User: Fold this.
Amino acid sequence: MGHPKSANITATISKISLEQRERRNRHRGCVLWFTGLSAAGKSTIANELECALFAKGMHAFVLDGDRIRHGLCSDLAFSPHDRQENIRRVGEVAALFAQAGFICIAAFISPYRADRSLVRNMNDGNFYEVYVNAPLSVCESRDPKGLYEKARHNEIKNFTGISAPYEPPMNPEIELRTDKLAVSEAVERILRHLKKWRVVKGR
Ligand code: ADP
Assistant:
């Protein structure tokens, strides 16, 4: 949590502990933070993973860049400052979901290491960084929304990978090479890690 502008704010502690929620859910709450270039496959894998977890009776929810930018962050654009503020807000929301006992799957380009490490620090111990990685050339050839085409023609400014930087994670908990793995394989790999980390039960 950050520092409130007003001094007259006191946090109310819930009468229900995270442990109680987790016992009822039969899994832990956590944040799976997907980072990577546009079209790397973050949303696609996030949504398949959400379905897989839901089918197993778990509480999972996807926070997606495009959805958040229509609502909570509709006042923000793509300058470094706005990107930082976007990620800060999303990090706080993801932390709330994890505290509510959810497996929160956050799919955001989040190009700056410093911003991602800020979010990691908001979620002590419950944060797993998933680097959804495909070479720029592959992302550009997929171009599901035609954004790379526009960025190449200078119709979009500050586009990650073209006219704005992307800083790859140094030590992600998982790296998924989506030019080599099928979506189902990527989902399986994350599910195996969730078991290994004891977020969910099973071997
Ligand atoms: P992002 O959320 O990272 O911008 P999207 O999931 O919106 O990316 O788009 C990725 C595109 O790449 C989709 O059209 C998806 O069908 C396609 N794709 C092809 N192969 C893969 C794969 N192995 N993993 C994820 N997406 C893939």
